[in-house]
Design brief:
Blueprint: E1 7-8, H1 11-19, H2 31-53, E2 58-63, H3 67-82, E3 86-87, E4 95-100, H4 105-124, E5 129-134, H5 140-149, E6 153-157, H6 165-174, E7 179-181, E8 195-196, E9 202-206, E10 208-209, H7 220-224, E11 228-229, H8 232-244, E12 249-253, H9 270-278, E13 285-289, H10 298-306, E14 313-315, H11 323-328, H12 335-348, E15 353-360, H13 367-380, E16 384-389, H14 407-429, E17 436-444, E18 451-456, E19 461-465, E20 474-483, E21 486-491
Parallel strand pairs: 2-3, 2-4, 4-5, 5-6, 6-7, 9-12, 12-13, 14-15, 15-16, 19-21
Antiparallel strand pairs: 1-8, 10-11, 17-18, 17-20, 18-19, 20-21
The structure holds S-adenosyl-L-homocysteine, iron/sulfur cluster and FE3-S4 cluster.
Amino acid sequence: MNKNTAVFESEEFREMLSAARDMNEPPQQDGSLRQAWFINRARELVSEKEQELGRKLTSCVVTFGCQMNERDSEKLRGILKLAGYEESETEDADFVLYNTCTVRENANVRVYGRLGSLSAQRRKNPGMIIALCGCMMQEKDVVERIRTDYRYVRLVFGTHNLHRFAELLVASLMSESPVIDVVDKDDSIVENLPAERTYSFKSGVNIMFGCNNFCSYCIVPYVRGREKSREPKEIVREIEQLADDGVVEVMLLGQNVNSYGKGLENPMSFAGLLQEIEKIDKIQRIRFMTSHPKDLSDDLIEVMAHSKKICRHLHLPVQSGSSRLLKIMNRHYTKESYLDLVDRLRKAMPDLSLTTDIIVGFPGETEEDFLETMDIVRRVEYDSAFTFIYSRRTGTPAASMEDQVSEEVIRDRFDRLLKEVQRLGRQKSSRFEGQVMPVLVEERNRQLVDHMTGRTAHNLVVHFPGDDDLIGRIVDVRLNEARGFYYMGERV
Ligand code: SAH
Ligand code: SF4
Ligand code: F3S
């Protein structure tokens, strides 16, 4: 894996760090200048500890959940690094932070399991700080359980105050007792914070936060709050800086990117934002996720079809093929309108790759409903699909619905669906066999010696002979042989 270990901070933030160096001056009320002050303060505290121990301090951030969390973790790592921590690959570190997810129950179970094993680690290193943040922490019963059963956790914060991490870090470094700071709402967007990017050549970019859709099974709107879009000029500025720093591919992130811009003072559509980003010279590929089918506009199809940079791949979660269930899920589209949308997309872009998310076992799902899902999967021909077993999330409308489907029935349907999406996906994703395509080279292949791994614009993985110096470059590769979900190829 090609890891870029340098922290990426903007020129502005660098200036803030030096402007906020005087610890005798109080920190600013809010914003990034305030965080810069706390980063400097954390650096002092870390360096005192280092002198005491006679060694460097280390930190480790572990991410659960989606690409939003991945991106948040890059920001958390950036701050830890500026505070003086060295990054550790393992959780045998002085500061261990779990950035958690709660979209399905198994995500929570994994966090509790790993927290248990961390406690042994802590016995070896009593100065160790164990910290938790992210979506799970926005749930009151989780925080209560941490308070009572996991008393060795020293810092807890949620999704709304992640931009105040530097400040919370200082609080935990100075306090003997746990620091727990979870707020229900915070409308501020703090721009310009640094990030430690995982890849040098591609980066996620938040374009909006939160979600307003309240799909009846989903916890995200409760733990991430209401939708808010970043100003287009801030997004463009961030991407320009990333491009100057070597990034060629950006992934625009939001729970529902198609409703981007609605609450802005000067509203701008997602299609409009894409056109602005397209103008940034050094950016060669633009991706985005996630697209809610109900808000996907004809303008967007038009912009995508004419774009030289927007990748021909759309992640378009369908959730179910049953119009009856889609209504109860509060998705605001039907099987027919979804299929119609797919038709329009394919007419405009015949080679488009489509991927999706599907939930099996939503309350009240009958065999007929399930067969509708099987049918839509066959008709759309996805390149791949993420299939999930419905998970009951306390507080969502679906959790209190009657007719929860039995585990046995769900298992059987899940297995049938998985088989079908895999069979169809294999078929569909092999459609480019024999063609030459531009591939962004991402990393050295871990199994095949002398091979590199990259992705086509359609998001298909290709392995081909090559050297490390190709990493981050877009090169032409012939897709010689389709092997299930990936290709074996050669450079031309
Ligand atoms: N905003 C994105 C999805 C974010 S959550 C969208 O609307 O498409 C990612 C996926 O997790 C969802 O698409 C859904 O398929 C799945 N998911 C969400 N809540 C779930 C639940 N309670 N049980 C099972 N899967 C769920
Ligand atoms: Fe959840 Fe629906 Fe929002 Fe996606 S759009 S995050 S599934 S509520
Ligand atoms: Fe999970 Fe939060 Fe993402 S609940 S899926 S990490 S928005």
